[in-house]
Design a protein that fits this description.
single chain; mainly beta; Porin; eight-stranded antiparallel barrel; 13 strands; elongated
């Protein structure tokens, strides 16, 4: 009897000493990290003096998590529209009975390489990063059928320019999901991501919303002599979802 008790106690102790694999150990997380964010672009300094309109758009990041290091290297892209005006005008000087919607918008595209310092584990993952790349600014006009939305008839780029850009950012990722993918042994993590970036932009030529004027007949006028030229510094605020896979 004592022998059975001793054997049972020994088996129990051995079972307690055997390491239990947690759910985090049942699969491995991949080395890629991507995110899609809603973007607010706020002009700064000279850019703000010439164009105080906030831009709204989307940004996309894709990075590689360097193994065993708190470092992510990748590429970031995005775009925002920082002002537009729509005019309802005759289709042409000879076709006065048909009206169309003429929309002119000011836009900016962002493209950067980034190096991010960020822990690889934990529910909260604060980070800071450095970036280098470009700002591409352009103004375009398009003609749409006034009866049907998003029915483009014609379009044209009125002015575009590109400028060197660099800056820094900081943010935090909060993990909301961790689980296994369809591939056995491979996991995925999903985060809510909030970030602020300050980007110094080189000099570029661009239109602002006030550059668009109207002729006596109501037709819009957009001439390059009304364009502004300055450095293109901006602060970007982003909120979205990131996935490590």
């Amino acid at each position: 009897m004592n022998t059975m008790k001793t054997l049972s106690l020994g088996i129990f102790v051995m079972m307690m000493l055997i390491p239990v694999r947690s759910s985090a150990q049942e699969y491995r997380i991949g080395q890629f990290q991507g995110g899609l964010d809603f973007l607010i672009a706020l002009p700064q300094n000279e850019f703000k003096e010439n164009s105080n309109d906030a831009g709204f758009g989307l940004s996309l990041d894709l990075g590689y998590v360097i193994p065993k290091l708190p470092v992510v290297a990748g590429i970031s892209g995005g775009f925002a529209t920082y002002g537009s005006r729509t005019f309802n005008v005759p289709f042409s000087s000879t076709v006065q009975l048909v009206n169309v919607d003429l929309t002119t918008s000011n836009n900016i595209a962002l493209g950067h390489l980034f190096l991010r310092f960020q822990p690889q584990d934990g529910m909260f993952r604060p980070y800071f990063e450095g970036l280098v790349g470009f700002h591409y600014l352009w103004t375009e006009s398009k003609v749409e059928d006034e009866r049907f939305e998003d029915s483009d008839i014609a379009g044209s780029v009125n002015l575009d320019d590109i400028a060197f850009s660099y800056g820094a950012g900081a943010g935090v990722m909060f993990r909301v999901y961790r689980g296994e993918t369809d591939e056995p042994g491979r996991g995925v993590e999903v985060f809510i991501n909030g970030r602020v970036r300050y980007l110094y932009g080189g000099e570029a030529k661009y239109f602002n919303e006030d550059s668009i004027t109207a002729a006596p007949n109501g037709a819009p006028i957009l001439e390059e002599r009304y364009a502004k030229q300055s450095e293109t510094d901006m602060m970007n605020i982003a909120l979205g979802v990131s996935v490590r896979f």
